[in-house]
């Protein structure tokens, strides 16, 4: 059961909150940054220490994490005061690192935190009302707009951000219809296009984005596969990849779940199914998180299982088609809640629902094989919802 599913149960009067996440469940997001498996050696030079934040839905709080640039290990920082019945899930951090936004899926609000010089958080004001069951959020590359998926509202809210105070003002025309139960959301590096998953119907909704306005592109929504859960785009914005955790594959494959691949029209953002799509691993069940490495050479997908859990594919440069790398899938218990790289691309961090924490992975730059960082997984009191990194 996902956090969002638990929120539905709470609304229906059931008194439980299950923090595990079966791999076949459709609703999950990731976060959406990238994993690099380059071409030389086991890693790059150590980077500086940096910070991260995770939501803790069951505790109603946001937790500060400190990440060692030398080892990649995580230590816990301060936690914001717990708020009953808030259930924060999605997170978004302004590019200038001054304000952090947490989506309170049960309270239908957005908490706005100011970020101090030591990375600690303080609420700036009362939470801002948003749509019905906010799930995930992104900020456009300019830091001007916050976009929020409202799962029960079937739409996306867009807010302009006051650079001085962090305050939010809903733009004209918002919320924008996004088809059934939108969850994960991604904005391309240029800020031109936005893609949203609709797990319940197995579709992806595609928008062009300009001056705070979302406009569905021709052909949207596009069918992806059963449970379409999370999306990733390469840095050139040519290819979009979507994990479908419940999709069945033709015999003799026993794998459950696959990756749909689309070509992105650079002018309109319209999606065209790629030849050979969908792609899958030789073994494994239910990938729910996906990311593309910063160089655009590799795609990684993650399941909640402990075996066959990390799928790695090379990207064919001319076509975007996926080819499994040697020894993939890898039997590393990483998790399937989210996956994102540290700011310099040394290490990958994956939300681990069974370990109630964040798994840290280094990887061989030549083969892509992941290796747990010493001390991983790093406990976060309870299962994390989403994570953002600060440089």
Keywords:
391 residues, mainly beta, Methylamine Dehydrogenase, Chain H, five-stranded antiparallel β-sheet, 1 helix, disordered N terminus
Question: What would you note in describing this structure?
Answer:
This protein is mostly beta strands and 391 residues long. It has a single domain, classed as YVTN repeat-like/Quinoprotein amine dehydrogenase (Methylamine Dehydrogenase, Chain H, 7 Propeller), CATH 2.130.10. It has one helix at 3-11; strands at 50-56, 61-67, 74-79, 88-93, 99-104, 109-115, 121-123, 128-129, 134-139, 145-150, 155-161, 168-170, 176-177, 185-187, 193-198, 203-210, 213-216, 222-223, 230-233, 239-248, 256-264, 271-273, 289-292, 298-302, 310-315, 322-324, 339-341, 348-352, 357-363, 370-372, 378-379, 387-390. The strands form 7 sheets. Strands 4, 5, 6, 7 and 8 form a 5-stranded antiparallel beta sheet that branches. Strands 9, 10, 11, 12 and 13 form a 5-stranded antiparallel beta sheet that branches. Strands 14, 15, 16, 17 and 18 form a 5-stranded antiparallel beta sheet that branches. A hairpin with a 6-residue loop joins strand 29 (357-363) and strand 30. The longest helix has 9 residues, at 3-11. The model is unreliable at 1-41 (pLDDT under 50).
Question: Quick gist of this model?
Answer:
This protein has one helix at 3-11, and strands at residues 50-56, 61-67, 74-79, 88-93, 99-104, 109-115, 121-123, 128-129, 134-139, 145-150, 155-161, 168-170, 176-177, 185-187, 193-198, 203-210, 213-216, 222-223, 230-233, 239-248, 256-264, 271-273, 289-292, 298-302, 310-315, 322-324, 339-341, 348-352, 357-363, 370-372, 378-379, 387-390. By secondary structure, it is mainly beta. The protein has a single domain, classed as YVTN repeat-like/Quinoprotein amine dehydrogenase (Methylamine Dehydrogenase, Chain H).
């Amino acid at each position: 059961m996902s956090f969002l599913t638990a929120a539905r149960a709470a609304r229906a009067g059931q008194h439980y909150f299950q923090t595990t996440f079966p791999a076949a469940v459709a609703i999950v997001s990731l976060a959406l940054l990238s994993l690099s498996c380059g071409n030389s050696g086991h890693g790059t030079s150590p980077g500086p220490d940096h910070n991260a934040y995770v939501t803790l839905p069951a505790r109603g709080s946001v937790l500060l994490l400190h990440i060692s640039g030398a080892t990649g290990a995580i230590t816990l920082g301060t936690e914001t005061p717990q708020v009953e019945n808030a259930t924060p899930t999605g997170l978004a951090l302004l590019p200038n690192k001054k304000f952090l936004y947490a989506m309170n899926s049960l309270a239908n609000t957005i908490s706005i935190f100011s970020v101090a010089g030591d990375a600690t958080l303080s609420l700036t004001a009362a939470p801002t009302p948003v749509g019905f069951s906010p799930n995930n959020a992104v900020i456009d590359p300019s830091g001007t707009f916050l976009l929020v998926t409202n799962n029960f509202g079937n739409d996306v809210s867009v807010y302009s951000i006051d650079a001085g105070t962090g305050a939010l003002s809903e733009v004209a025309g918002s919320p924008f219809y996004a088809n059934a139960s939108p969850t994960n959301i991604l904005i391309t590096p240029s800020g031109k296009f936005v893609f949203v998953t609709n797990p319940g119907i197995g579709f992806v909704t595609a928008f062009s984005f300009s001056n705070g306005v979302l406009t569905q592109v021709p052909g949207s929504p596009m069918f992806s596969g059963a449970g379409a859960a999370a999306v990733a785009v390469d840095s050139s914005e040519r290819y979009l990849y979507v994990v479908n955790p419940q999709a069945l594959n033709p015999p003799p494959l026993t794998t459950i779940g696959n990756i749909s691949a689309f070509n992105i029209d650079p002018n309109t953002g319209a999606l065209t199914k790629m030849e050979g799509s969908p792609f899958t691993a030789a073994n494994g069940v239910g990938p729910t998180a996906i990311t593309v490495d910063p160089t655009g050479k590799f795609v990684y997908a993650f399941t909640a299982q402990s075996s066959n859990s990390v799928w790695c594919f090379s990207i064919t440069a001319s076509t975007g088609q996926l080819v499994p790398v040697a020894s993939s899938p890898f039997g590393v218990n990483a998790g399937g809640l989210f996956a994102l790289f540290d700011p310099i691309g040394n290490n990958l961090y994956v939300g681990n629902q069974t370990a109630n924490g964040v798994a840290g992975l280094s990887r061989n730059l030549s083969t892509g094989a992941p290796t747990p960082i010493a001390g991983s997984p790093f406990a976060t009191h309870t299962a994390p919802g989403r994570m953002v990194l600060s440089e």
